[in-house]
Amino acid sequence: MRVFLDANVLFSASNVASLIALLCERQTAVACNLAIEEVRKNVALKRPAWRPGFDELLKRVDILPSILFELQIQLDRKDAPLLCAAIRGRCSRFVTGDKRDFGHLYGQVVQGVEVISLLRLAKLLTV
């Protein structure tokens, strides 16, 4: 299983570090350069002390290039490259805590990628 980590998941990784560590032990964690850039900006602005932990996390994450192509679902143009990267990267799941932009897709499979919450990921990893 390859699991794509959205920017807000990566940003919050210090709070869910054990979950992400478990994922990295059992599966492949994936993100794209667009998500990483967003996290770098947010960490610098909001949580500079998290930078070392974020840098360590990135050592365990496969980083894909951002990409944009037409999707079969309704999604804001700023968010589409993230899901497109997960699809192109042949990830089985796209994990996000962004309910505002992705919540309507929770539990749906979009072009082979299931959109799930962190809670759902935790349940999948602890079964």
Main beta-sheet strand count, sense and barrel state: 6 strands, mixed
Q: What structural category characterises the helix and strand content?
A: alpha/beta
Straight-line distance between termini = 15 Å
**What percentage of residues falls in helices of 4 or more residues?**
40-55%
Order of H and E elements: EHHEHHEHEHEEH
Structure summary, number of beta strands: 6
The CATH topology: Rossmann fold
CATH superfamily assignment? Answer: 5'-nuclease
Name of the CATH architecture: 3-Layer(aba) Sandwich
Q: Let me know the average pLDDT.
A: 91
State the strand order across the main sheet.
3-2-1-4-6-5
Tell me the Rg in angstroms: 13 Å
Question: Which stretches are low in confidence, meaning pLDDT under 50 for 5 or more residues running?
Answer: none
Shape: globular
Beta fraction of the residues? 15-25%
Overall tally of domains: 1
State the CATH class.
Alpha Beta
Q: Given the structure, what is the number of helices? A: 7
